[in-house]
Design brief:
It is built from 9 helices and 2 strands. By secondary structure, the chain is an all-alpha fold. Belongs to the ATPase A chain family.
């Protein structure tokens, strides 16, 4: 701890602030490849690069890994098989066997989010899942799949009719009211999915930064408290990274199956 304090004493507050917050301040201006299409800025920056890296790792684990299976598996194949087994046992088929056809998607979603979450823990990287635009986009894709599956399996009229029970008392009043409540809930589902992931991952990073920033305001002697606290929260964020990836994936699977079996639930 003493060498660390000596090093901190040689750094100005401005330099220390930059080292703590540079992940957020420079992400949009680092590693930039300028691209403009019809006046729309589509430049690739550090945020997008880490999104690409996360997609590449997910592709390597799931797509490539499933095509190089051997009779005597090595460590890589064991990891791939364990991931597949996890998805098969804990994601697909929450309400029925037919729902298992969607577990490849929700498993891919789980691995993709988990990879991005874990990469965001690496110093100097960028936590993509702490970007609300990205998480809401994933949630919007889930919303579109849910509605498409509900309509495809039940039909337009039957699916939307199932949004409220038909045998409620005072049906002319309560049925429209309950239908509107369900409609609001359908839009709230993807919103809560995206915001939950974003808020948890952002909050985890900010808590760590807050502890480290205590050094800026109260001097380097606070490193005795703030650094160990930041390390503890760093370990806790590792748990949150896994948990939030699973929550997003399992709720996506549940929402899809609820839409598929919408008429059977009433």
């Amino acid at each position: 701890m003493r060498p660390m304090l000596a090093l901190l004493q040689q750094i100005t507050q401005e330099e220390l602030r930059h080292e703590i917050l540079h992940t957020w301040e420079t992400a949009k201006t680092k590693w930039v490849i300028p691209i403009e299409v019809f006046g729309v800025d589509l430049s690739i920056n550090k945020i997008v690069w880490f999104l690409f890296i996360g997609a590449a790792v997910t592709f390597l684990l799931l797509f490539i890994g499933s095509r190089i299976l051997k009779d005597r598996p090595g460590a890589y194949q064991v990891i791939v098989e364990e991931i597949y087994g996890f998805g098969r046992n804990h994601l697909g088929g929450q309400m029925g066997e037919e729902g298992k056809k969607w577990f490849p998607y929700t498993l891919t979603l789980f691995v993709f989010i988990l990879v991005l979450n874990l990469m965001g823990l690496i110093p100097g990287s960028y936590p993509v899942t702490s970007n609300i635009t990205f998480t809401i986009t994933l949630a919007l894709i889930t919303f579109l799949i849910v509605q498409q599956q509900g309509i495809a399996r039940n039909g337009v009229v039957k699916y939307f009719k199932s949004w409220a029970p038909t045998d409620v008392p005072a049906r002319p009043v309560l049925y429209p009211f309950m239908w509107i409540v369900h409609l609001i809930g359908e839009f709230a589902k993807p919103l809560t999915l995206g915001v939950r992931l974003y808020a948890n991952m952002l909050a985890g990073s900010l808590v760590i930064y807050v502890f480290l920033s205590l050094i800026l305001y109260f001097g380097v002697f606070t490193a005795f408290i703030s650094v160990p606290a930041a390390i503890i929260f760093y370990a806790f964020k590792l748990f949150i990274a896994v948990l939030q990836a699973y929550i997003f994936a399992i709720l996506t699977q549940v929402y899809i199956e609820l839409a598929m079996f919408a008429d059977e639930s009433h």
